[in-house]
Structure formats: C-alpha cells, structure tokens
Amino acid sequence: MDNSICKVYEDEIQLLEEEIKLLTEKYEDGQQESTFFSDEEILMSINSLQKEFQGESKGNEHPSDLKARLESLETDLSFLMKFTGIQFRSHSKKTVEKTGNRTVQKHRLSGNCHSLSFQLEFQLLEMQNKESVSAVITDLSILLESGEDSDVSKFVSSTEEHGNLLTFFRSLSSYAEWYEYRRCTFLHFK
C-alpha cells in the first residue's frame, strides 16, 4: 500500500516538474521576444496607447447618443443600398506588407447589384507622407455574372487596367438596373 501511494506521489511530482519546465520555456521565449524591441520602441508604443486611450475617454459619448448615431448610419446605408442597388455580402482585408510609410493590403469584396452578382479582388497601396496619405489600387480583378456580353467584358477589362473602382460601381449600378429591366421584358415575351 505504501508503494502505491509513493508511486502516485512520484507521478504527481514528475507531472509538476514537466509543467514547470514548460512554463520556464514559455517565460524564456517571452523574454527573448521582448528583447527584440528597444526601450525607445517600447516607450513609443506605450505613449501611443496612452494617447489612444485618452482620446477614447475624451470622446466617450452617452450610450443613447451612440445608439442614435448608429440608427442614423443604418438609415443612410439602407438609403444608399436602395438608391444604388449595390449590396455587399462579404469583405475581407489582409495586410500583405507594412513598412514605415508604406502599407499594402489585399481586399476581397462580393455582393449584388440588383440581380447581378460581382466579386472584386484588389491590392491597396497606401503611401504616407508628413502632410497626406495617398492610396493606389493595384492588381484589380473583377468577376461579373453577366460577363458573356462583349461590351461588359471590355468595360471590365478597362476598369481592371485603370483600377478605378468609383467608375466601376457607378457603371455597374446603371448597367445592372437596365439588365434587370431587359430580363423582365424578355421573360414577359416568353
């Protein structure tokens, strides 16, 4: 009986020693990671976080004001969706590269415009100067449901070359509206 109790305690001691070893390794890894940053960089990060926190605490609004503002934004969004016919189903953003004054992000959008489905994929290159930020769209790829029309495919190709999303969405809204009218008309005559 004493042997079995000793065995249980020895097993428990061994498990605790293994846990201590794992925790020690994790601690050392954390220490090594923190040494990659200089004291100056750590202080700059702390100051930045403090400024953000102070800005948030100064800008705190009453919950009823936030709720009213949210309702206003939802109303505006609903109006824009009805006005343009564009509804976004999904959006994803991934940072590909980030340096001091340059950021490259990859975006994916999908949605509907009236009855047409579309998907966009592009990279957004942001360059920051002391005075301003400039953004350029690169590697634009557009998939449009009604790509069989040669005029539409020419328009899509031109838009992909120039990377002009505003023109694309304006034209898509108008085209999709008339596409829907044509579809209903042809259904009527069938």
UniProtKB/TrEMBL annotation:
A cellular component term, taken from the record's GO annotations: chromosome, centromeric region
One Pfam family, short name: CENP-P
InterPro entries assigned to the protein according to its UniProt record, in alphabetical order: CENP-P (IPR027801)
Record keywords: Coiled coil
Source taxon at top rank: Eukaryota
Coiled coil: 6-33
Gene Ontology process terms (BP): CENP-A containing chromatin assembly
PANTHER family given in the database record: CENTROMERE PROTEIN P
Record protein name field: CENPP protein
Organism encoding this protein: Glareola pratincola
